[in-house]
Design goal:
Oligomer: single chain
Number of domains: 1
Strand order of the largest sheet: 1-2
Shape: globular
Largest sheet: 2 strands, antiparallel
Number of helices: 9
Radius of gyration: 21 Å
Structural class: mainly alpha
Distance between the termini: 5 Å
Strand content: under 5%
Length: 259
């Protein structure tokens, strides 16, 4: 990677790629396994008149942090090019699959009796089967993995090419155009594809639920991507100072050639 640079610059680039990749993988893994829960936005923000009312604006918890995955993806795109992003995307998908297999295997192991006895009553004094809850949550999460890996890889590959399409047009100017533009296009696919596979094809949702939740999630991702625009400029500035402005400019120019 970037063989024409001095050892100190190479080390900085290596450290930058490791840091961005680690944060990317961490957020993707967290989002995968908390995403099984669907929460109501109206209730969360106290927008319902009565606590017993059923809100209609629902979203997966995993989606909350997902825009940060694509923010990091845009930074990887900017400094390490298409090959750099594709590499970490396939590694992330493989690690998600690995984690899913390990977690599923864990649900098959027999529970210790003292663990069942120590957790057999919930906070309201009702009988509670913690092993059943454990299996239900994590096995449902594993089902989501099939859809999410597919949606993740498809949307990441689309994001990469859309980002570089805009970069050819804008050059070093208008970072927000390529960052936000790539998110708008890629998340249109991701927001609906994961729900369609995980909850409609492999679950028990109706198609209208896919459209309803997918629309909310897509609007959230796009809205947050716009709100996070100052953050990507801040991160860009920090990286430029870390690498040095001259080196930073050169790294961006050579991003796709040096991998």
């Amino acid at each position: 990677m970037n063989s024409g640079y001095s050892p100190s610059v190479k080390r900085k680039l290596f450290n930058l790629y490791i840091f961005l990749s680690a944060f990317f993988i961490c957020n993707a893994l967290i989002a995968e396994f908390i995403g099984v829960k669907i929460f109501n936005i109206e209730q969360a923000f106290g927008l319902l008149k009565n606590s017993s009312d059923a809100g209609k604006i629902n979203m997966s918890i995993g989606v909350i942090i997902w825009p940060f995955v694509f923010l990091i993806s845009d930074l990887l795109n900017e400094y390490f090019g298409k090959k750099g992003v594709r590499r970490i995307s396939f590694i992330t998908a493989g690690l998600i699959a690995y984690a899913a297999v390990i977690i599923y295997a864990g649900t098959l192991l027999p529970p210790a009796q003292f663990w069942l006895d120590a957790n057999n009553i919930d906070n309201n004094g009702n009988a509670f089967n913690i092993n059943f809850a454990y299996q239900t949550i994590f096995r449902q999460g594993v089902g989501i993995v099939i859809g999410s890996i597919t949606a993740f890889l498809v949307s990441q590959l689309i994001d990469v090419y859309v980002f570089h399409f805009f970069r050819k047009i804008t050059g070093h100017r208008l970072l927000w155009v390529r960052a936000t533009g790539s998110t708008i296009v890629s998340q249109l696919i991701d927001s609906f594809l994961i729900l369609f596979i995980a909850f409609y094809l492999l679950g028990n949702w109706q198609f209208k639920d896919v459209i309803s939740v997918g629309t909310v999630q897509y609007l959230y991702k796009v809205g947050l991507a716009i709100l996070l625009t100052p953050l990507i400029y801040l991160a860009h500035g920090i990286i430029n100072r870390y690498l040095g402005s001259d080196y930073s400019h050169d790294v961006i120019e050579k991003a796709d050639r040096d991998w």
